[in-house]
Specification:
globular; four-stranded mixed sheet; single chain
């Protein structure tokens, strides 16, 4: 039996160690098109907060900061700042759209645990 999440993740590119699945890349591309701007990139960051100490932030950004790692994912960039990069090495970002849940998910091998609500990690 094959783990489809791993198979999907290996078909995509990595940005600063981040893997973006085809489903997530398609959703990001659609959202950027809806914004009507071609200067936006998806910024992925780790910030202090949440019950477990650290929280992910995903947002569109037109800025370029010193030390950013930027990779192209077929027409849009994924940006990771130098402080967040070690926390995100090997993380897989996917997009889920089901009756129970809709949104981006992050499977991070560097997270040793998370809070009960799944909003933060350590």
């Amino acid at each position: 039996m094959t783990d489809t999440s791993v198979a999907t993740a290996t078909e995509t590119s990595a940005a600063g160690g981040i893997v973006l699945t085809d489903t997530a890349a398609s959703k990001v591309r659609t959202l950027i098109e809806q914004e009507g701007r071609d200067d936006l990139a998806l910024r992925v960051a780790v910030q202090p907060g949440g019950c477990s100490g650290l929280r992910y932030q995903l947002f569109f950004d037109e800025r370029s900061l010193d030390g950013d790692v930027v990779k192209d994912f077929g027409g849009f960039g994924v940006v990771v700042d130098r402080m967040s990069a070690p926390y995100l090495e090997g993380a897989v970002i996917d997009f889920t759209d089901t009756i129970e849940k809709q949104g981006f998910t992050i499977d991070n091998p560097n997270a040793s645990g998370s809070c009960a609500c799944g909003d933060s990690f350590h």
